[in-house]
Amino acid sequence: MNVKNKVFLITGAATGIGAGITRALVKEGAKNVAALDVNVDAGEALQKELNEQHGANKVLFIKCDVTQNLDSAFDEVMKQFGYIDVVINNAGIMNDAPHIYEKEIAINVKRSVARCRYLHIKEPFRESYRKER
């Protein structure tokens, strides 16, 4: 996949696989990457590191709990960058404790599906962008 000049949004982006994806996309020429995560310290550090290496405003960290404020985070990305080319639903947890399974399903499944549906509603905006390019 050619990532050059594309805008990416990644959930769970501050550490681990998400941070690795963010670094790789910026290195390969992504226009912008929105890094969403609940870990503020790691997210801000990643944003600072990559913006210092690759140019100001390349990476935007947004504190986001995908079970609570994903819609407002997506709206902020649209406001900052104007569009989103690719969404990578990386946020997830793995915990076999009986009292955690509902949160696990909410993070790993429900919000990803809801987010895709939310973006589909905004598709007319995306279509107008494609025509302008």
UniProtKB/TrEMBL annotation:
Keywords: Oxidoreductase. InterPro entries: NAD(P)-bd_dom_sf, SDR_fam. Signal peptide: none annotated. It is an enzyme of class 1 (oxidoreductase). It catalyses: resolvin D1 + NAD(+) = 17-oxoresolvin D1 + NADH + H(+); resolvin D2 + NAD(+) = 7-oxoresolvin D2 + NADH + H(+); prostaglandin E2 + NAD(+) = 15-oxoprostaglandin E2 + NADH + H(+); (11R)-hydroxy-(5Z,8Z,12E,14Z)-eicosatetraenoate + NAD(+) = 11-oxo-(5Z,8Z,12E,14Z)-eicosatetraenoate + NADH + H(+). Its EC number is 1.1.1.141, 1.1.1.232. GO terms for molecular function: 15-hydroxyicosatetraenoate dehydrogenase activity; 15-hydroxyprostaglandin dehydrogenase (NAD+) activity. It comes from the Eukaryota. One of its GO terms (cellular component) is cytoplasm. The keyword Metal-binding does not apply. PANTHER family: 15-HYDROXYPROSTAGLANDIN DEHYDROGENASE [NAD(+)] (PTHR44229). Belongs to the short-chain dehydrogenases/reductases (SDR) family. Catalyzes the NAD-dependent dehydrogenation (oxidation) of a broad array of hydroxylated polyunsaturated fatty acids (mainly eicosanoids and docosanoids, including prostaglandins, lipoxins and resolvins), yielding their corresponding keto (oxo) metabolites. Decreases the levels of the pro-proliferative prostaglandins such as prostaglandin E2 (whose activity is increased in cancer because of an increase in the expression of cyclooxygenase 2) and generates oxo-fatty acid products that can profoundly influence cell function by abrogating pro-inflammatory cytokine expression. This is 15-hydroxyprostaglandin dehydrogenase [NAD(+)]. It comes from Euphydryas editha (Edith's checkerspot). The lineage of its organism: Eukaryota, Metazoa, Ecdysozoa, Arthropoda, Hexapoda.
